[in-house]
Amino acid sequence: MAHNNKGVVKRVEWRISVGDGSSERVGHSCMWAMTASLALKLYMFMKKAWEIGLNDPRKFIHCLKVGIALTCVSLFYYLKPLYDGVGGNAMWAVMTVIVVFENTAGATISKTINRICGTSLAGFLAFGVNWVARRAGNEFEPLIAGVSLFLLASAATFSRFIPTIKARFDYGALIFILTFSLISISGYRVEELMNMAQQRIFTIVIGTCLCIIVSLTICPIWAGQELHVLVTGNLDKLANSLRGCVTQYFSHSEASAISDDESNRKLLGYKCVLSSKATEDVMANLARWEPAHGCFNFRHPWKQYLKIAATMRNCASCIDALIGCINSENKAPDQIKKNMRSISLKVVTNCASLIRELALTMKNMTNSCKVDILIMEMNNAAQELSDLLKSYPKLVDPSESHNAQDTQIEVAAKIEIPVMEIIQVVTLASLLIEIVARVKCIVKAVEELSDLAKFKPAKSKQHAVENKFSPDQEKDEKTINKIQIVF
Amino acid sequence: MAHNNKGVVKRVEWRISVGDGSSERVGHSCMWAMTASLALKLYMFMKKAWEIGLNDPRKFIHCLKVGIALTCVSLFYYLKPLYDGVGGNAMWAVMTVIVVFENTAGATISKTINRICGTSLAGFLAFGVNWVARRAGNEFEPLIAGVSLFLLASAATFSRFIPTIKARFDYGALIFILTFSLISISGYRVEELMNMAQQRIFTIVIGTCLCIIVSLTICPIWAGQELHVLVTGNLDKLANSLRGCVTQYFSHSEASAISDDESNRKLLGYKCVLSSKATEDVMANLARWEPAHGCFNFRHPWKQYLKIAATMRNCASCIDALIGCINSENKAPDQIKKNMRSISLKVVTNCASLIRELALTMKNMTNSCKVDILIMEMNNAAQELSDLLKSYPKLVDPSESHNAQDTQIEVAAKIEIPVMEIIQVVTLASLLIEIVARVKCIVKAVEELSDLAKFKPAKSKQHAVENKFSPDQEKDEKTINKIQIVF
């Protein structure tokens, strides 16, 4: 305490001496520190931004594309002949490029179509209203214009709340209100309304065409492709998480030091699956505007991807609960864990293989003959897990004999192990069986996609049918027999 | 088959006879059918839209607000003195109102500030570049203007990819590009640039002020309030789901007929919790722009709501797994279910009460003295559940005596019940214990909010401390003692 007080006194003394002589120097160093801190912050920000770009270089390309499109459209102003053609309305072409040009081709096309449709529809309506207002005489003209503006703007605003319109035509509704207001108000003043409208539509068409050309020709980013990559990537992440968490659980006591950042990152992949709903919804909405690209047709069933993602989220919820159960306080004894180990790992390995095969099927858009085999293997493994649970005493010590004479010993073993000790492994097994059921839902959803998108038939289907009992499966069958003998 | 053929022949004959005499009539009726179907679709659409409005009448009010703001701003055109003041630039006020006016106050303010900042910043930069370009001579003028446009537009576009900027200043970056392009391009042609810029900024300020006044004075919708209502509502939904699913499970055999649509809807409330992340993120981003309103200060800790929502989603994941386990194929025998019933129901009832109390705490922004008691009760119930599991044979028949002589009978009972039969109840219990742990995370997050937002102290805290052993708790203590005696 005394020491503490001394320290405080010393600091106060120092402050006083500083305050006495060199306040200017302190102010200087303070400013310097602030500047340095600001510079550091700016540097960190720029570094982060640069890393974002490095992670996905297409972002840099998109920026260059916007620059190119804008420079092209500004030629309308800089080159005299073009300027004389469209005059001051060239501004609308510039505005169109800036507002319409989006990162993905789908978004650009969607905005383009929305802008053209919204502008045209509003233009026709505004001219109609203007025509009626002029016939009504000078007194009623502002009244009719005002009332029509009020009603149509309110109706169009309301339409933006309707989910189907919000998903596809939100921007169109906005442009409708904008154009209707501008024409209906200008109509009251500008005499050469038709000429202006003509020029404006002409420049908007030029702007949109430029956007679409630049967007679709220079390294296009397709929303459909993005959705496809996101969903298939998430399938892989799901498989990694599922396998990772169970493997880590069973090897935890042995080699917990091995689990590094990399494996932890893999383990948490299921969180990406849970949190990517919003992105998927947006991408699926944009993808439907895109023309055929890569291996996707114009009317590729993008909505089915959302269904697949929903089944994946169901599965990820279960993995979340599984991880919760693994990290819970009721730890199972090592002996029980050891007995459960091989079969549990078999179940998750089979699940993970199946999910990865589904991802591969989607990536190649080719049906795989392996899927059926993998489903069978997964079902078999789940069945084995159930069988193991059914033979409860085996959990304790599988080397015990089944003789009627030994019942007493067996009973003793049972009494020693309360339910509290096996609760973790039983919950794990139960959740694994639930996960198997949910993986089947993913399989069903992918099969529906395969039907809808007409995936190519499996290349070696004939071969697969002939070799129905593949080496893998034979091994599998042998294992089952072995287990049946053991129990 | 013969019958089938006859039918086909008949139909063909009928078609021929139709084709012979009355093709005109068929065409007529076909058109009529199409019109009717179109009218029906339109009617259904309008009905759906009307219902959307009825469900949330504020949507109607928002539409009226947009209409009012637009009509007000159009006065600039209709009334001559005002028109003479700002001239053709009044168009910018109209445009501002349409683009800036959003549903929530936060969104309107955010767009307003973005628009003004983006416009001003871009304006200053554009003038600077223009000044430099003019000094460089006629030859270099378009070159400098073009290169600066290309660079700044690319940089601003890239900034929109950076998450922190995207969340708050996305619209500002867009407006920056728009304004910079328009001024830098116009600057090359229009001589009275300063005058134009002045008028334009003046009209934009008028438009934004009008938006903010209308948005904040006529039935304002606050993003913060919406977020608050969403999160507290989701807490209630979570409590209902949790209680509903376990109650339904244990009463399934008795009164499955009672479970109607209403209860099913309640049961699926947790899905709302899982799927409302995107809305919450948007609302939290908008809420930070809003001034103090209702019982929220300007710097209310909106981010903490996102943390609470994250803990709620964790809990909802577990409920999802729980429902999966309840619907799984391994049904537990009625006897075991009966023994588990009261304690399981106690756990979920306590969890649900606690979650509802948390919702109430947040709604009233007042700490509740009940929370601590409810946490204790929940912990006690969870402990009882653990105790019940520890006394495994009791699951089978709690009336069995504990005499050493009866060991043989007890053993017989144990052998009769394989793990497969108790797997469902064990998983249920395990998941309930996990849910209790996750509910505690919600409690922690709400307590953090209470600290950050400085919730009012509990009204009857003194009273609660004095009566620490409340009747409820006493009852609870008695129950525990009773249970300890039974086992």
UniProtKB/TrEMBL annotation, chains A, B:
Keyword Chloroplast: no
Gene Ontology cellular component list: membrane
The protein's name in its UniProt record: Putative aluminum-activated malate transporter
Topology within the bilayer: Multi-pass membrane protein
Any one of the GO BP annotations: monoatomic ion transmembrane transport
Primary residence: membrane
Top-level taxon in the UniProt lineage: Eukaryota
A Pfam family this chain is assigned to: ALMT
Keyword field: Ion channel, Ion transport, Membrane, Transmembrane, Transmembrane helix, Transport
Database matches in InterPro entries: ALMT (IPR020966)
Localization per Swiss-Prot or TrEMBL: Membrane
Entry keyword Transmembrane helix: yes
Family per similarity comment: Belongs to the aromatic acid exporter (TC 2.A.85) family.
